Amino acid sequence: MALGLLLVFVAAGFMGCHTPKPVREEALQPMAQSYRGVLPCADCAGIDTSLFLAENGTFILQHHYQTDRPGNRVFATYGKWARTADKLVLTDVQGDKRYFRPLENGLEMLDRDGAPIVSSNAYRLTATKAPLPTTPMAMRGLYRYMADAAVFSDCFTGVTYPVVNNIVMEKRYLQVRKSSEDAVLLTFSAHFAVVPSMEEGMEVKSLVPSSASFQMKAQNHCNE
């Protein structure tokens, strides 16, 4: 009898030692913030990298390659971010994913599988305050112009933004649309900027067309 009780207590103690502990999520606070750092580069001095996270679940990522070679050295992309218990997952408009994890006062870049990079080099971005980049990015979405205001609903993120006045684009919309309230499918290059809104004293994140070059189609949906 005593042996039986002893085995019960031992079993209970064993089970107690292996009871899983609750997983604690380390929130990235605040969610809308920017990071910057110089990441290692195989054939250049480094990649000056800036990451901007927005509260609506979107991001902007800019890479500036530090090299003397001719050609464009600055590139930017945007997309959607999501948070797991220990990782930040970025998915750009091409469907490519990048992974980071919180580390001290910033983020550490992970490899393509979301695992730590084994290297003597630092793959870190530090939290900082910086203006949004003006590097043009290719965008595709639904565009409307009415009542002297234009809006763009991005096909990939589903987020709608005001568009800074562009007379050429507005005139073309009036020619292409099928009816007065229809949207058209717009492909163009633009960058984000925080500009004064129509409400006095307020600012709003808007899209600034980068050039007069764009494609507009009489189609009010994103499907191919």
From TrEMBL:
Organism domain of life: Bacteria
Pfam families assigned: NlpE, NlpE_C
Annotated InterPro entries: Cu-R_lipoprotein_NlpE, NlpE_C, NlpE_C_sf, NlpE_N_sf
NlpE C-terminal OB domain sequence ranges: 134-223
Keyword GTP-binding part of the UniProt annotation: no
Keyword terms: Lipoprotein
NCBIfam families linked: PRK10523.1
Name recorded for this polypeptide: Envelope stress response activation lipoprotein NlpE
Organism expressing this protein natively: Symbiopectobacterium purcellii
